[in-house]
Amino acid sequence: MVKVSMYTTAVCPFCVRAEMLLKQRGVAEIEKIRIDLDPEQRALMMERTGRRTVPQIYIGDTHVGGYDDLAALDRAGKLLPLLEQ
Question: In order of start, what are the domains of the chain with their CATH numbers?
Fold first, then answer.
């Protein structure tokens, strides 16, 4: 399974929901990048994604977006193929 990473903070209900959805789809490990603990990571996230909110999710090199984007991808049947690359 492809590597999954997620920019997150300590208190983020959408991050929790994203993690739950990914685990339901078989993702065993998610690299969590805490932007609330490291301002440099926040700047890097905004530079990479063009967004300011968390979560920001990467599946492999593909920027999925936030929780709503992840859920929409799942509803469209495109999440599992992306995870299985």
Answer: 4-83 (3.40.30.10)
